[in-house]
Specification:
Elements lengths: L2 H4 L8 H10 L1 E5 L4 E4 L7 E6 L2 E6 L5 E7 L4 E2 L14 E5 L3 E6 L1 H10 L1 H27 L2 H16 L3 E2 L3 H8 L3 H13 L3 E4 L2 E4 L2 H7 L1
Antiparallel strand pairs: 1-8, 2-7, 3-6, 3-8, 4-5, 4-7, 9-11, 10-11
Helix pairs in contact: 3-4, 5-8, 6-7
Length: 217
């Protein structure tokens, strides 16, 4: 699929606006583990995932990470265009969880589209509302759910994403997703293992009883 098929309101742009986008559109390949967008240090622009998988997260002053959402094939993200969204006050980091290729509309081009096109402005507001919902869901998990339930939910989500019950994950990686310490995750996974829910080996978590994990949520 090309970018036109990825951008839901493409047909609502004028021919001149479509030409502007295509002439300025950049593609970028990012290897697994590399940063796509580095907080307020840069203004990347609108990101669209051609293929791959990205992780959007925030970083605390103490250096602790917590995942807001993931982006998959054909997903779009406007959080990487902080310089044109004045209300965005927290630093967003985006890294590739798999080898990924993205399309990028430069920030000033996208800002021009927002100013000229009501459909683009409305669509941007919809994207921001979706991102805000992700943040609110995250806050709800942190405030009201115990860590064992959060770890269980994360493991099940990973199984669904990867299509396997054998996950190549370190305890540090899980901790970064959930915004906690590695020791907390290690303690929780050992508890799960003693209960027969998972089997642990170096760099791997195997889900052995998904039904019990689902019942924990």
């Amino acid at each position: 699929m090309d970018f036109q098929g990825c951008f839901p309101i493409w047909n609502k742009l004028t021919p001149a606006q479509q030409e502007l986008v295509l002439n300025s559109l950049a593609t970028r390949k990012v290897s697994k583990g590399n940063i796509v967008h580095n907080g307020n240090m840069e203004c990347t622009g609108l990101l669209a995932v051609k293929y791959g998988q990205l992780r959007v997260y925030i970083l605390s002053e103490e250096g602790r990470e917590i995942t807001i959402c993931r982006l998959f094939d054909m997903d779009l993200c406007v959080l990487s265009a902080a310089c044109i969204i004045q209300s965005l006050q927290f630093e967003i980091m985006i890294e590739a969880e798999k080898d990924t290729e993205v399309w990028i509309i430069p920030p000033m081009v996208y800002k021009k589209l927002m100013e000229e096109s009501a459909p683009v402005a409305n669509y941007t507001n919809e994207l921001m509302a979706t991102h805000f919902s992700d943040v609110m869901w995250l806050m709800e998990q942190i405030m009201w759910k115990s860590m064992d339930k959060r770890v269980a939910a994360f493991l099940l989500e990973e199984c669904a994403i990867e299509g396997t019950n054998t996950l190549k994950l370190t305890h540090e990686t899980i901790a970064n997703h959930l915004g906690t310490h590695r020791e907390v995750v290690t303690r929780m996974l050992r508890y799960f293992q003693s209960d027969g829910l998972v089997a642990l080996s170096r760099g791997t978590v195997e889900i052995t009883d998904s039904k019990k994990l689902e019942a924990m949520q």
